[in-house]
Please model this.
Amino acid sequence: MVGSADRKVVLVTRQTRLEELVARFHTIAQAKFYVEHSGADFSDYEREHGSYLNAKQVTLGTLQTHGRYQAVDRSFLPNFLFGKNDIVVALGQDGLVANTMKYLQGQPLLGVNPEPARYDGILLPFEPHDLSKILGDVLLDRYTAKDVTMAKAALANGQELYAVNDFFIGPKSHTSARYELHIGDTKEVQSSSGLIVSTGLGSTAWMKSIVTGALQIAAAYQIKMAMPVYAPKPWNAKELTFAVREPFPNRQSSATVVFGNITRRHPLKLTSLMPANGVIFSDGIEQDYLEFNSGVLASIEVAERKGNLVT
Model:
């Protein structure tokens, strides 16, 4: 391929459910006993594992032809350094694409679906046998891509974390979060089970479930309102959406600002009032988080960098 010696391809992979079970129970036999004892179908784990290994083998064959490549498991992403000219391939579900994108700075990202019969693959437009052609096009900069707006959490001490789908800000466990919320000209102390901040891409996920639940609860209490149709935002929307989960007004806290938009001009600022166990994590990866305990000031804003998803 033209340019194959000049640019490195980074293949991001993940463990299958079967591999995670074996890591937990040490042997396939013990994993099988656990799954079948729970009444589940162990053969489905085996089929998924086999399909993923086959897809990985085809993908690696293409990359070996390309020449310069490196494979990395997603568990190493928080500490992995991508080169500015790298091309990145994510082989897995949509979540793996999102998990990978937040560590990139504009490098082209290709989502490869290892098993189209199993995964819808909204972020996975390619299959393993497509990779040879699309990789050649990317090397020659002859490709189309979608811009993906990302979110950024910045702490006053300089720590940062990015999100492709959403942020969760709140307690590690099922306890109350206490914080001071400040957006625009509004500032108030709140008590809730945490906040969700969603990008346009993430507006079809966690945020949709929050809005849907709130509308159904309102309807159950026969609150008269024009029932709006929930409309997700485009992936490149230049704003974020936040929602406060289960706000609880009392003598010390309010709940007048529980939903709204975040723009570059009006970021969401939060000051933690939690003595311990406060966290900010993104895209469902709880292990990679920022501590959000008493006195920590966090600014949630539209990120200065965007995802570059090859289509």
